[in-house]
Amino acid sequence: MQTKSLAIEIENLVSFIKCNIGVKNAEHYTKSAFVQCRRKIKPEVFKDLSDSLVEEFYTDRQQRR
């Protein structure tokens, strides 16, 4: 598994958002700003995201059959 620094990952995320989601005003974020905002995320969000990803994965597999 390849590891990257947090700063590189943040930059990649901002680039992805600009290119694929259409948010043109996404700016550069510092590592500190990212960490401070990350602390505000409720743990339930990760459970909900996981549930959604698993559901989508199995829905997609069933449609391919």
Describe this protein's structure:
The chain is built from 3 helices and no strands. The protein is mainly α and 65 residues long. It is extended and about 40 Å long. The mean pLDDT is 77.
Number of helices: 3
Kindly state the mean pLDDT as a whole number? 77
Rg for CA atoms: 16 Å
What coarse outline follows from CA principal-axis ratios? extended
Give the DSSP E fraction (strand runs of 2 or more residues).
Answer: under 5%
The unreliable regions are none
Distance between the termini: 31 Å
Topology:
Layout: H1 6-21, H2 31-38, H3 43-64
Keywords:
mainly alpha
Summarize the structure.
The chain is mainly α. It is 71% helix and 0% strand. It has three helices and no strands.
